[in-house]
Amino acid sequence: MPHQEQVMVHGNLCAPGPPNNAGYNSNPVPVIIQTESRDKWSKKMDFLLSVIGFAVDLGNVWRFPYICYQNGGGAFLIPYVLMAVFGGVPLFYMELALGQFHRTGAISIWKHICPIFKGIGFAICIIALYVSFYYNTIIAWALFYFYSSFSSTLPWTSCDNAWNTENCTNYFGKDNVTWTNYSRSPAEEFYTRNVLAVHESSGLGDVGYIRWQLMLCLFLIFTIVYFSLWKGVKTSGKVVWVTATLPYVVLLILMIRGATLPGAWKGVVFYLNPKWEKLKETSVWVDAAAQIFFSLGPGFGVLLALSSYNPFNNNCYRDAIVTSLVNCLTSFVSGFVIFTVLGYMAEQRNVNVEDVARDKGPSLLFITYPEAIANMVGSTFFAVIFFVMMITLGLDSTFGGLEAIITAVMDEYPDTLSHRRELFFGTLFNVTFFINLLFLFCKGGAYVVKLLEEFGVGSPIIAIVFLEATAVSWFYGINRFSNDIKSMLGYTPGLFWKVCWVAISPAFLAVSLNKDPLTLFDYEFPDWSITVGYIIGASSFMWIPIYMVYKLVWTPGSLKQVRQNGSPKNENLLNNLLALRHPRCR
């Protein structure tokens, strides 16, 4: 990043050390502060919209409604709110405060917190790359749908296309249509047979070839991302005024349209009807914890990066509360948008809502919703705005992930990269583009995407955030972290926040671990692919122990000497590893 200067900060920033501790360094602590040379947000709203755009993503639209009705409808809101209050929001607040105080990205921030945990920063960057690959692929599919929507009759409306089979069943506007377990809607066959062509693949070992239409869509997405980020927060802060606000306009339009459809009330009742007995099941609470964690998105390095460009005295506490509320309310409202349409589809099929509410993940957005849109009056208009919403939701997540990588690497190597942001991002752009092509293979690319989604992000990021919360609360010190916040906001966080950071939030992360069976379109992944998945997961997390070993090997002194003598001279090793001599990480 641009050059930063160091100043000596006294008082509240650094708690005074014990006067008789021989290993304590009484010198003032160098704290990096924002200077004119470091990028800043042009407006406060640029930052808020960037954070909201990152936190409110496609998962709010497709995952929360499904998880809600699956886990007790309205009753699910109780564990969801509790997990948000005691787990998700405190971690969200912690990351905003860390980034704003230390003014640096996910790698170099560990120099100021606890050096031996610096591998967390490298792991976060790798996971951010995986998230970028995933979202860019989803957006490329959405862009293909967007292009296909510009026709008087949407291509997933009828069963008269070259990719359709004898199982294709179009029930809209027709009477006495029998829907069986073998029936497939035109929208499902368009997605699985025309866009993904998974029917031509025998599985993950048969990925096929790259479809040029999808490659062109991916290139257009990367072009938008490049010119949105190449100048840093100065440009991305302007782009999010469109990408972060447009989805709310579209959601409002779709919710009003959905409410006017026949059978919409059935979907709403099914969505919110409380099943109180579900609260006795452990899986419901686990799903609530996982949903709020992945929805708010702590641990991906994005909140650290975005908040590092804030003024030092910005009220990050208020930002955390406001953006978390917006995120959770968006998830709740999205449920109405989805389930009014599911009620309409159930009415048309003459079946129960649960019979059409089986799709989750991308299938909900690429099969179920397009199927309903295709049979509405003004279908082309609603299809266009729906896929525009999907594209903008995905773009905001991609913006955040790539900005986290750029900020982290440039802050770690400022002398080399401080004036070469465009060159560095151009290199990153080309590398990620060509790797991303692996996920667009016609026939088997969808299986690669699913493997990355399950193993590349889920468990590794939860483990990483657990270590991050532990390092900040127990090694850096909860009192010291509270003093940092006091130096920015003028007051110390209350007891509630301290208890959450020290104990409750780490426990929340522990229960968030939940691994479902790996399947896609009735395809069960072979055992060797599960092994590959674990390797993908380890490819990010492994940098944490690797860096710890590196610090142990290259730091002067020995653990044996420390155990035997315990003298200040021989405490250099542990002091360097844990920054024990440092007043902010004793």
Automatic annotation (TrEMBL):
Keyword Transmembrane assigned: yes
Paired cysteines (S-S): C159-C168
Listed SUPFAM superfamilies: SNF-like (SSF161070)
One BP annotation, GO: amino acid transport
TM annotation in the entry: 47-65, 77-98, 119-147, 209-227, 239-265, 285-309, 321-346, 372-395, 423-449, 455-476, 488-511, 531-550
Keyword Metal-binding: yes
Binding site for Na(+): G53, A55, V56, N60, S295, N327, L393, D396, S397
Membrane-related topology note: Multi-pass membrane protein
Keywords: Disulfide bond, Membrane, Metal-binding, Sodium, Symport, Transmembrane, Transmembrane helix, Transport
Main localization category: membrane
GO cellular component, as recorded: neuron projection; plasma membrane; presynapse
A GO term for molecular function: metal ion binding
Compartment(s): Membrane
Stated family: Belongs to the sodium:neurotransmitter symporter (SNF) (TC 2.A.22) family.
PANTHER family linked to this entry: SODIUM/CHLORIDE DEPENDENT TRANSPORTER, TRANSPORTER
Name of the featured protein: Transporter
Provenance organism: Cyprinus carpio carpio
